Amino acid sequence: VRSFADRFVAEGPERLNVLVANAGTFNPVYTQTQDEWEVMLQVNYLSIALLSILLLPHLLRSATCDDPSRLVLVSSLGHYLVEPMLTDSQNWDHILGAISAEKFGVSGQCRASRYNLSKMLQVAFVRELGARLPSPTPLVITAVNPGLCHSSLQRELDKYCLLRMVLGFVKWLLRARTSEMGSRNLVYAALATNAQDLHGRYMSSCEVVEECDFLLSAKGQAFSERLWRETIEVLSKVDDRVSQIVSTYLPAR
User: Fold this and answer.
1) Which of 4, 172, 240, 250 counts the most CB atoms within 10 A of its CB?
2) Model confidence pLDDT, tens digit, residues 31-77
3) Using an 8 Å Cβ cutoff, are 43 and 25 in contact?
4) Which of 100, 115, 118, 224 is an active site residue?
């Protein structure tokens, strides 16, 4: 991520009007990265948050009064399913550390829940980042559900024949979309003319819809604020530009 951001600064275009952050993975086995984070947490959430913040100045500089820049994070309908995992989250010493720990989930069901949770973190990140920008905003930030699609997201399941067959049946049963059909939701969020109405919101089927009940609750709002602080703290240790960008462009609420 840092290398990409450096390369964009050195070789990229002068303007950055749209950033669609669509990195994602699903791993059926607990796996740690070399940075000692659970792999889905790092790929699906931390890396996207880092890239979004490192490129934030470029998105803001490219915006005009009539044409705000766009930041689109690819989330999931699965984020509605995570509340049972967060019943005692207010007692966690460290949200990201608790979620990353191997003991946080060991069953196959929990592996899917980890993926859903990483997508809920994206929605929370969009809300918190959006709330720290001025109104009307020069940068419209949106979390988008592309729907259940045929894609390479489950590429790690190739080693698990039974899981792959079950998932294939579920996709057939639910009439999964092609990747091209799912991408239309992302394109809409990136180009829609009613930009200010989309800011800081969650979208599905090209419409703004409510986030999960947990994020709308007082407990969820407190969770989101803690998550934001922890995320900035963690990312600032990875790249010192993060704290500089936050202090310059994102004043505390």
Assistant:
1) 250
2) 899 999 999 999 999 999 999 999 999 999 999 878 999 999 999 88
3) yes
4) 115
Q: What is the pLDDT of residues 120-165, one digit of tens each?
A: 999 999 999 999 998 889 999 999 988 655 565 555 555 656 555 5
Tally of CA atoms within 13 A in the half-sphere of 244 that contains its CB = 7
| Residue 220 burial (10 A CB sphere; 0-12, 13-18, 19+) | buried
pLDDT at residue 108 is higher than 60 = no
137 close to 199: Cβ distance less than 8 angstroms: yes
**Is 119 an active-site residue?**
yes
Distance CA(51)–CA(173), nearest Å, equals: 36
Question: Does residue 177 register a pLDDT over 50?
Answer: yes
Q: Is 123 exposed, middle or buried (0-12, 13-18, 19+ CB in 10 A)?
A: buried
The answer to whether residue 176 scores a pLDDT higher than 80 is: no
Candidates 119, 183, 202, 224; catalytic one: 119
Catalytic position from the list 76, 89, 118, 224: 76
